[in-house]
Amino acid sequence: PKQAEENLRSPICCIMGHVDTGKTKLLDCIRGTNVQEGEAGGITQQIGATYFPAENIRERTKELKADAKLNVPGLLVIDTPGHESFTNLRSRGSGLCDIAILVVDIMHGLEPQTIESLNLLRMRNTEFIVALNKVDRLYAWKAQRNAPIRKTLKQQSKDVQNEFDRRLIEVITQFKEQGLNTELYYKNKDMGETFNIVPTSAISGEGIPDLLLLLIQWSQKTMIEKLTFRNEVQCTVLEVKVIEGHGTTIDVVLVNGVLHEGDQIVVCGLQGPIVTTIRALLTPHPMKELRVKVWFCVLPFCRPFPFSLFFLCSSYVEYL
Ligand code: GTP
Ligand code: MG
Ligand code: NA
């Protein structure tokens, strides 16, 4: 129904997988940023979040389908660490999302934290799309910047195509061993039962249009009810931090509802509930990572706050 479609919130998508499969790099590629190279040891150690407005997604997917209908306002992507010591953060990320991307390195296949992530997603019945990343590492791959995957695969040599097929089949077999049917998304005739695989490269951007379009279409097709905006506040804390000039801040994802400066809120503390007032709402700019604080727009203006909230919104924030 038209009315419902007009009142959708952004789907929340969690990106998960084994360490160094390219989760952060994929997001860098979509954002046009360089967050990954700034990470200590190239390892993600926190949950990150980025808001992608629908217009950016439309732009990025136009080669695939110029008339792609986007009913959602955008996509909120949660980045998680793949290192084995961060099971708790993967669990929090997967608990928060509507849909997920499970990243697999095409050169490595399924790895221990791929399987751990897979099980976290299955536990909650969360739909996910497999990004079979690093296709550009196939020997003699000819990169075509940001091209849809079918277009670029067609233009590879026979040897490269054979190598791709061989590795793809290996990954499909490994998923099968985990009790899961998977298939290349454009060959998948049984969406719902069989999980989609989208080959990608975070370096050349190949397959990114396919991944974004599939995420949006899949969410819009199967989650209209879940994504219909509700007024009741639903908000999850990602991090608590003391930031100079702001005092104690919390990074949160607002899933539903509206928050204002001055609202009284209750958050769970280690010593019991904390009752406090929202002094400021700060949101990262669209297409910028929540973890990179320099990108924040401070609203209404910057002054020392004993307590402030950093916000990333899947729904609306109203500024007074
Ligand atoms: P953690 O967050 O630490 O689990 O890692 P990650 O999954 O976010 O991987 P990350 O983005 O840190 O990438 C790991 C390494 O792989 C980096 O050196 C990237 O440059 C490289 N990389 C990521 N994606 C690709 C890709 O598509 N192709 C190639 N050739 N290299 C990639
Ligand atoms: Mg990372
Ligand atoms: Na990494």
TrEMBL record:
It comes from the Eukaryota. This is PHOTOSYSTEM II PROTEIN D1. The chain holds residues 751 to 1070 of 1070 of the full protein. Residues 8-224 form the Tr-type G domain. Belongs to the TRAFAC class translation factor GTPase superfamily. Classic translation factor GTPase family. IF-2 subfamily. It comes from Salix purpurea (Purple osier willow).
